[in-house]
Amino acid sequence: MKKIILSIIFIFNFLHSAQVEELTWPRGETFLTFLDKYKISQKLYFDLEKEDQELCSEISADGRYYLYTDDDGKLNQVLIPISEDIQLHIYKDSKNEYKFQTLPINYTEFTEVVAIEITESVSHDIAKATGDVTLAALIKSIFTEGVNFRKMQKGDFIALEYSQKAYLGKPLGMPDLKAAMVQIDGTSYFRFKNSKDDKYYDEKGTGFTKSYFFQIPISFTRISSEFTNKRWHPVLQRFRAHLGTDFSAPVGRTIFAAADGRIEFSGIKGGYGKTTIINHNNGYKTLYAHQSDWARGIKQGKTVKKGELIGYVGNTGLSSGPHLHLGLYKNGTAIDPLTVINKPSVDTLEMKERNLFLASTKTIQKKFQDEIKNQNRNVATKLDRTTDRSEINIF
User: Most CB atoms closer than 10 Å: which of 42, 99, 302, 383?
Assistant: First the structure.
């Protein structure tokens, strides 16, 4: 389905001699100002269902989007990715009228095992081998305990197993580092990701990932809409998404910070209305939308503690009723808030799970050792990454 849809888009543009540009979304630009720029009626937006209006508020500054214009400069189509799985699509139909839909992103994904001999430094050699500075930052994050990178010398090794999504030749989201080995003077140190809890353990099952505790930031009556990354609606025959969890509550109900952090944004955010975004300095951010008002003293740059009052439930923006829309983002990617808030804070593996986990790591250890000995080592796929390494924090 995905490939068919996107193939039609590209063929359509080829036949109509459209000009294709890859651009970055300007800071301060909103979906509505974008429509104005291309002389598209705002009715297109205000006729959308609430979920689709909220998705328009997920457009992030400096994110890539793909613009298709006719020879006369008029907009033909635009594709605006808003997550790793879904994108907004505005296009002209057969009647030359602009339409809106959401489409899945037709990404590819590859998994690689690479062994990298140290010649200069961990950061330099990983970036040179993979073309990705984020992998070096991830490696240093998971080996903060027990490994002194300053002792690494020429001839030592780093080995990695990771997956990466790619879209139109560029990385989509962060690499998923599944396992890593650091070899210093013949001694090997390992970290393996457990897919069940997204935490890293060594070859003995000892955990090396910190736990961060989030609380549900509101006393609510019910969850009125759950998080959905991408869903095909069988009746409407289209894709839908909801990048947050909606907690139904009366106007004025107090909203508290889900965890410690710093206010990154406090203001009006498109269809989200009065919104607060908190950066938790651990790779996570939380978004609180549709507020009736902010608590006294809440402003950009303010440090808040978990449980501190930040605002009040409302119905601002484009909302069908009073509720809190809670968004949670890990390294810039929207994830289901309830998978983190409700995740048990267990730092050790149970015996049965531990035995299965350790058995699976034996295979990976052998892969790493074989790759190091291989004279014709795997060459990593290089993509043009633009992500700032300062945004990276796997914990």
Answer: 383
Q: CA 34, 30, 86: angle at the middle one, nearest 5?
A: 90
Is residue 189 within a helix (H) or strand (E), and if so which, with residue range?
A: strand 187-194
Chunked mean pLDDT (size 10), the chain, 395 residues:
42 51 92 95 93 92 90 90 94 93 92 95 92 89 88 94 91 92 94 88 86 88 91 76 95 97 94 95 92 96 97 91 95 90 66 86 94 91 57 36
In this prediction the pTM is: 0.83
Q: Are 109 and 95 in contact (CB under 8 A)?
A: no
Calpha distance 65→105 (Å, rounded): 12
Q: How would you label 97-117 residue by residue, b for 16+ Cβ within 10 Å and e otherwise?
A: ebebebbbbbbeeeeebbbbe
Q: Please answer whether residues 201 and 357 qualify as being in contact, where contact means their C-beta atoms are separated by less than 8 angstroms.
A: yes
User: Position of tokens 């390992």?
Assistant: 190
Length of the chain: 395
CA distance 264 to 303: 9
Q: Nearest-CA neighbor of 314 among 244, 254, 224?
A: 254
How many angstroms separate the CA atoms of 256 and 226, rounded?
20
